[in-house]
Amino acid sequence: MKVEQLYTGCLAEAAYYIESDGEVAIVDPLREVEPYIQMAEANGAKIKYVLETHFHADFVSGHIDLAHKTGATIVYGPTAQPGFEAHVAHDQEVLQLGRVKIKVLHTPGHTMESTTYLLVNEEGDETAIFTGDTLFIGDVGRPDLAVKTDLTREDLAGYLFDSLRNKIMPLPDDIIVYPGHGAGSACGKNMSKETTDTLGNQKAFNYALRTNMTREEFIGEVTKGLVRPPQYFPKNAVMNKQGYESIDEILERGVIALNLKEFQDVVKRNNALILDTRPKEDFVKAFIPGSLWIGIDDNFAPWVGALIADLDQPIVFLALPGREEEVVTRLSRVGYDHALGFLEGGIASWIAGGNRVQRVEEIGPHDFTNIYDTEVLDVLDVRKESEFQSQHIQGAVNFPLDFIYENLEQLDKDKEYYVHCQGGYRSVIATSILMANGFQEVINIRGGFGEIKKSCIKVTEYHEPETML
Fold first, then answer.
1. What pLDDT score was predicted for residue 469?
2. Domain identity same for 263 and 122
3. How does pLDDT run across 139-160, given as a tens digit for each residue?
4. Are 293 and 327 contacting, i.e. CB atoms less than 8 angstroms apart?
5. How many domains does the chain divide into?
6. Same domain, yes or no, for 442 and 309?
7. Residues sharing a CB contact under 8 Å with residue 223, sequence separation 6 or more, in sequence order
8. Could you tell me the CATH number of the domain that includes residue 337?
9. Alpha-carbon distance 30 to 38, whole Å?
10. 177 and 93 fall within a common domain
11. For residue 354, with 0-12 CB atoms within 10 Å meaning exposed, 13-18 middle and 19 or more buried, which class applies?
């Protein structure tokens, strides 16, 4: 028997490869499925099952393409109603995989179809659970992401309480917990950086598994402090439930080199968004006016999902040479399937064609501190509200990147704004958005709050924020 976790940091998402005696099950695969197929072929094995723990909201799963390419059976738990061929298993159903068994445990709460898969080894020992978004390391799934349900989040939290107490907590303490996500995912609140643990350890340290917690206390704690999920979540959940276009067709359409004239024609004809994915150090020196910067080398896909409102938005992009397919793939992971090509030659081609570029004005943390000590500045802190509450520059205003488009009207285009985040990634995204919307007096603070607070600047801790939400 072989179990391998396949973790994708950009999405804080874990897929799993389970193999026994030449048969394979893949749990919650990503959109691009060739790596799973190649793994199985390298081991001389065949993919038999694609096990889906629920209809995911934070990414588009590869279940449909994987089933089409391998003949594997897609499996969901009870109550699921997929819009494609799949096996909807009943609670306690046992799936045979080589010489091991996988038991289906219906664990509603995160969503009503949420299911945990219990792995029983060759000796008949219960060895691992693949919990999806029901149980994380240090947390449980948020109960407000189900697709079109009449149930409230409190109702779903109640189901989750019952699922944990009746299905998961009675299992042996030495069982390994394999969750669907780790720290950084918006599917929970307090996830650990660890991506596996024993169930016994989780019973001891996970707040949601306290044995002396009442149902009402659990509901209160699980629903407390939930922020609105990113706008693309329900759209991805619908794609996962109803089906989608093949990743092969998306790559064929999106990984096309466009010369300057073709690039400009595609933008004009399709009202395409220009997405710049280059390193921020390159973007700030010169970029196409009106373009949106989201760098490929950080949490690219989640920020695309949070900031580009329409999944059907045509997109053309700039990328470092050799990374074009990666951009299209990572766009498709969150349902943005309408990339129409990239600018061949990048920004150099744009400039060579006699076109205007813009640059981002930047300031280092020490120079910013010197100005801050002598002048009254308008400082926008684009971190999340919770980060701002923990520590922030005195006089700064919380202007979370997550909700930037909703709050632009609260800013004055005639003012000069200094913008920062924690490390410099989100502030460049915010700066590109502000400049594309007519704010020209925008200055990005390099290094973000992490470097600013080293400069003896006045910092406020644990303060109720002045925030634009």
1. 43
2. no
3. 999 998 877 678 899 999 999 9
4. no
5. 3
6. no
7. 143, 144, 153, 154, 157
8. 3.40.250.10
9. 14
10. yes
11. exposed
Give the CB-side neighbour count of residue 59, counting CA atoms within 13 A. 32
Residue 311 pLDDT exceeds 60: yes
Residues facing residue 47 across a β-bridge:
24
What average pLDDT does the segment 54-65 reach?
97
Each residue of 360-418: pLDDT tens digit?
999 999 999 999 888 889 999 999 998 999 999 999 999 999 999 999 999 999 999 99
Structure tokens at 418: 């200094």
How many residues are present in the chain? 469
Tokens encoding 276:
């710049």
CB atoms within 10 A of CB 22: 14
Q: What is the residue-wise DSSP string for 23-83?
A: EEEEES--S--HHHHHHHHHTT-EEEEEE-SS--SSS---HHHHHHHH-PEEEE-TT---S
The one-letter code for the residue type at 429 is: I
CA dihedral 387, 393, 395, 401 (to 10 degrees): -40
Do 216 and 252 lie in a common domain?
Answer: no
Chosen domain end from 236, 264, 280: 236
Residue with tokens 């992971």, as numbered in its chain: 333
How open is the CA angle 88-94-100, to the nearest 5 degrees? 130
Q: Kindly state the helix (H) or strand (E) to which residue 407 belongs, with its residue range.
A: helix 404-407
- Write down which residue in 333, 352, 371 finishes a domain: 352
- Residue 202 scores a pLDDT above 70: yes
For strands 197-198 and 176-179, give the pairing: antiparallel
Angle at 282 between CA 276 and CA 284, to 5 degrees: 80
CATH, residue 103: 3.60.15.10
